[in-house]
Amino acid sequence: MAAQPQKQPQRPGGEEETGTESAAQLKANPQATERAEELDSILDEIDTVLEANAEEFVKGFVQKGGQ
Amino acid sequence: MSVRRLIGLETEYGIHAPANPRASHVALSIELINAYAAQVTEAGGAVAGTEWDYQSESPLVDARGWVLPRSAAHPSQLTDTPEALVDALGNVSGGDPTPADSAEREFTPPGSAHWRGDFFELQEGQPQLLMNLVLGNGARFYVDHAHPEYSAPETIGAKRAVLYDVAGDVVARTAASRLSAEPGSPEILLYKNNTDNKSVSYGAHENYLVPRRIPFDNLINGLIPFFVTRQITSGAGRVGIGQQAQTPGYQISQRADFFEEQVGLETTVRRPIINTRDEPHAHYDSWRRLHVIIGDANMSEYSAWIRVGTTALVLDLIEHGKAPDIRLIDPVQALKVISHDPSLTVKVPTNRGPMSAVEIQREYLIAALEHARSASTPGLPDTAPDTETAEVLEAWEELLTDLAEEPSRAADRVDWLAKLQLLESYRRRDGLDWDSATLGMIDLQYHDLRPEKGLYYKLARAGRMRRLFTDEQINWAAQHPPEETRAWLRGTLITEHSQAIAGASWDQILLRPDPAAAPVRLQLSNPFTGARTETEPVLRTAADTPAMVQGLQQLLEQNPAGHQ
After folding, report:
1. For position B53, what pLDDT does the model report?
2. For residue B110, is pLDDT > 50?
3. What is the pLDDT of residue B308?
């Protein structure tokens, strides 16, 4: 997949504009930043189990009505 | 004041055969149920492969005291007779026509002699294809609409309820793996989530036993602000905004965008925040079963525990007239607005001015703390009547503090935050936008029930999620019934006396004293009878099956109503 430019997450439906994105919050807190960096380190492992053809897989996951 | 009330959870799983998109989901679900029956019986165990006893199912009885005319009911609501069930299965709603829809048109209803599964072949001597199983742990595993559904046995307390819900994942996973082992069968994938992100949602329901003397309006008023905001502690997170995920973004709840009413009877269309379905599966004059349809299915055991535990506490507050006086001006809108704001800063209009979800939850917490104090040892701080209630109160307070100060701190307990952290890591590393298919894949695969594939399990194994149970405990609960309710008798009879069982539902068991005899109906309308301490002596001392049936009948007649 082609890398896309990083954008701020959209906030549809939110009534206020706030600067407290979770990523920004992570940066503000040393402990949380550490945890997030640890998470970055297991992304490679997650890459190996992630279904290969994401676009087709997600498109194909169609459910029938439920409760 | 306690979380120790009768609770039962239900999970509808998403089902998918990527190698065979034309497979009928109804047929796949039926095959899955039967695969589980095969797996258990092949291992020397037993299930009650009886037809579900429909006599006490009445989904069209409304809690507000009127009965919906049949002609007005959506076909998918009609699940109370075998014929209606087949009708509902043949007319499943929702979504655009798909290959699975086309396959459905050629579908011969189960129960007819011509029905055959696509993949699962019955072996000689196996029971006929079944729509419903009652399991040795007291649960029900069955086909609901076009999904496999596991309804956990009745338990007392939030933690037990969650344990038996997680045990359902073991059941479903075992069934999928058994079915996939059939020659020619494609791999069946199961997802513990609530939407396909293409307009369809399916539920994870909670059931709480509530005394009928509590006016239903009190439940409505006390629960709506709580349910609308509860997602911040237990939402499962979702990539995409709107029923069809038409707007890119991330939201807290899987279910929020699918709710359109405040109060109503439906569960599949025009979903209401408060569902009025009124089948107590218990003595009608004494009990109501509050059927909660608004929750997300949780992968995190901790999130599920908080969801169920805090709901039990709020029900206690309502029963004692102690619920905080908060009224949302527009609950349905507030549900969505809160879900669409992962920063947790948005405020929604209330009778007390604009309030954030954390603020509203905190009002409920404060009321619960005060009530617990006054109900146990007045005058002393931080007291609660029992251990689990104290644990839930403490965990709730800690979680709300984290959510108020630094939401990411709760990513080790709360699904939507764990998933968000994962997604944000990918966004940082790969520069992904919210409409990226990779993020959609991560969202879905977080809920994959395969331990080696499911991303929740990856995080848990990496020590990033707080667990409540060991795998051993969960596996045990998939095999054994909870001791504290009638589920013990149901499950134990199935495991140890399956030859005598002619039928089983939540509040009845049909037993044959001998193979030629007419079945005897055991009424279990008091959900607390049939517990192990009460029933085990009868099972262990009866000389033979007729004596056991007679002994159980006598025992259950002593307290048939289950009055409080």
Report:
1. 41
2. no
3. 98
Has B278 been annotated as catalytic?
Answer: no
Choosing among B428, B435, B446, B448, which should be mutated to test the A contact, i.e. which has the most A CBs within 10 A?
A: B428
Q: Residue B115's pLDDT is what? A: 40
Instruction: Find where tokens 């800690």 sit.
Output: B398
Contact A18 B343 (CB under 8 A): yes
What is the value of ipTM here, to two decimals?
A: 0.84
User: Is residue A66 assigned to a domain?
Assistant: no
Burial of B364 (0-12, 13-18, 19+ CB in 10 A): buried
For B412, what's the count of Cα atoms within 13 Å in the CB-facing half-sphere? Answer: 17
Q: Give CA–CA dist B242/B563, Å, rounded.
A: 45
Contacts of B92 (CB under 8 A, 6+ apart): A64, A65, B25, B26, B76, B104, B145, B146
Any domain includes A36 = yes
Contact B175, B217 (CB under 8 A): no
Tally of structural domains, chain A: 1
pLDDT of residue B95: 28
Q: B418 — alpha (psi -120 to 50), left (phi > 0) or beta?
A: alpha
Give the pLDDT of residue B248. Answer: 97
Residue pairs between chains A and B whose CB atoms are closer than 8 Å:
205
Which of B299, B305, B29 is CA-nearest to residue B169?
A: B299
Q: Which residues of A touch B20 (CB under 8 A)?
A: none
**Is residue A14 in a domain?**
no
How far is CA B404 from each of CA B73, B226, B401, rounded to the nearest angstrom? 43, 17, 5
pLDDT at residue number B483: 97
Q: Is B409's CB within 8 Å of A32's CB?
A: yes
B24-28, B80-84, B404-408, B431-435: lowest mean pLDDT where? B80-84
Candidates A9, A31, A39; nearest CB to B421: A39
Q: Tokens 């291992």 map to which residue?
A: B43
Q: Is residue A40 a part of any domain in this protein?
A: yes
Catalytic residue (one of B144, B196, B412, B448): B144
Range of the domain at A29: 22-50
For the segment B68-79, the average pLDDT, to the nearest whole number, is 34
Average of per-residue pLDDT across B389-398: 96
Which helix (H) or strand (E) covers residue B171, if one does? helix B158-180
